[in-house]
Design brief:
Largest sheet: 3 strands, antiparallel
Strand order of the largest sheet: 1-9-8
Number of strands: 10
Distance between the termini: 40 Å
CATH superfamily of the largest domain: Cytochrome P450
Order of helices and strands: HHHEHHHHHHHHHEEHEEEEHHHEEE
Helix content: 40-55%
Bound molecules: protoporphyrin IX containing FE
Radius of gyration: 22 Å
């Protein structure tokens, strides 16, 4: 980034600073755009944002056969999310930008190495980052943001007096990590846990069936999933939260603002020290979650569940501000998938869902991706052939 932009973003970040920090003020503004539309504010800006751009076609109607589930979910979520965030001129429509982003995102840690090491150990990440920056730069130079949703437009118009287009392109490249990097693994693990248990799959299908409207049109039957009713049955959202609980691999760093004792006077946290909360430790605590702490229980979040020990989206002042956006998007994707498709794993000769493990090499993630490939046969459900599908809001 240019020196001017860098000092603008870094200004007043110290806790003792009396003047507002542009970075924190910016996050507050974004928070208003991501007001939980799915949790009551039906006419909130987040919802308007979705209306202003092309609705995401999360599942295209092409015939799918053997697919690598991770790669497929990654592509679909990338497309749907960036269409909403960037609108008609979405730079991620170019496959090079899509691939470049994931090269960058998966290699962020080696990029932090000093000196020439990134050029040796992070070539894919460096090249990917440059491709995304180029795409974003072009988006701003060609005024693609003017056709985009109000969030990206407002962000650009607010920041352009303090930074060059090339700075903002870099800013948007990193923003991709917030909007995509955790949504993809969360969607993957939700699909994995639902499809790998026939009872759970049936339960989720029953819920989505109940909010699906069937219309007879001149060219055949259309089934429309009513997105505004996704939360009528809590099972789908509970499954997403539970996937985030059992698969969490991230942490929440916090700066201690003043001396404080925690626990039953057991620990003294000194002012200005850093505390790193390992989410996995909280999520597997038997006192909070009981004997089944290690097990995926789909309806765990349908009733009362521990809020203190749940850090799927972090908490406190830094609570993830994209959580409703991400939950709604994943729920819509899963709803459409369970209704339209059967997924049969094809790993070796086995048709069983084996545990693929988690690849812990990217510490920047809150929820690690699968370690082994999960290859599945995707086939349209036999009883629902010849029907077309849509979302209604
Ligand atoms: C399932 C997907 C997601 C997961 C698991 C996730 C998780 C998290 C976590 C754990 C934090 C840290 C909170 C803390 O330190 O306490 C966080 C912060 C944040 N997330 Fe997410 N996130 C997801 C999706 C999104 C999306 C889609 C966006 C944007 C549209 C987003 C934007 C942010 C931002 C801007 C912050 C920083 C908030 C602040 O410091 O004020 N996240 N997220």
């Amino acid at each position: 980034m240019s020196e001017q932009a860098s000092s603008y973003f870094m200004a007043n970040l110290s806790p003792s600073s009396e003047n507002p920090s542009p970075l924190i003020e910016g996050l507050k503004v974004i928070r208003t755009f991501h007001h939980p539309a799915g949790r009551g504010d039906r006419d909130g800006p987040c919802r308007r944002t979705s209306h202003e751009s092309t609705p995401p076609c999360v599942i295209r109607s092409r015939w799918l056969e053997k697919v690598d589930l991770w790669a497929w979910v990654q592509h679909e979520i990338t497309f749907a999310t960036t269409e909403i965030v960037y609108g008609l001129a979405n730079p991620y429509r170019h496959s090079k930008v899509d691939a470049g982003f994931w090269g960058f995102s998966e290699g962020t840690l080696p990029l932090l190495m000093p000196g020439i090491f990134p050029m040796i150990f992070a070539q894919r990440a460096l090249a990917g980052r440059e491709t995304v920056i180029k795409g974003m730069d072009n988006y701003f130079v060609c005024e693609g943001y003017l056709e985009g949703p109000s969030l990206v437009k407002t962000r650009y118009l607010t920041l352009k007096n303090h930074a060059l287009d090339s700075d903002l392109a870099r800013f948007e490249c990193v923003n991709g990590i917030a909007i995509l990097a955790n949504t993809v693994p969360t969607a993957f693990w939700t699909i994995f846990h639902i499809f790998s248990d026939p009872g759970v799959l049936q339960e989720v299908r029953n819920h989505v069936e109940a909010i699906t409207i069937i219309k007879t049109m001149p060219n055949g039957k259309v089934r429309k999933i009513d997105l505004s009713r996704l939360k009528d049955g809590p099972i789908l959202f509970s499954a997403i939260q539970e996937a985030l609980r059992v698969r969490a691999t991230g942490s929440g760093p916090r700066l201690v603002m003043e001396d404080v004792r925690v626990g039953e006077n057991q620990y003294l946290l000194k002012k200005d020290s850093a505390v790193i909360i390992a989410h996995k430790a909280l999520h597997s605590d038997r006192e909070a979650w009981g004997e089944t702490a290690e097990t995926f229980i789909t309806d765990r979040f349908c009733g009362r569940a521990s809020q203190q020990a749940y850090r799927g989206f972090g908490g406190g002042a830094n609570h993830c501000l994209g959580r409703s956006f991400a939950m709604g998007e994943i729920a819509a994707l899963v709803a459409m998938m369970v209704m339209r498709f059967d997924l049969i794993p094809t790993m070796g000769n086995s048709k069983a869902w084996g545990e693929p493990g988690q690849d812990l090499s990217n510490m920047a993630l809150q929820i690690a991706p699968p370690k082994k490939h999960v290859v599945v046969d995707v086939s349209p459900r036999p009883d629902l052939g010849g029907v077309s599908w849509e979302f209604v809001v």
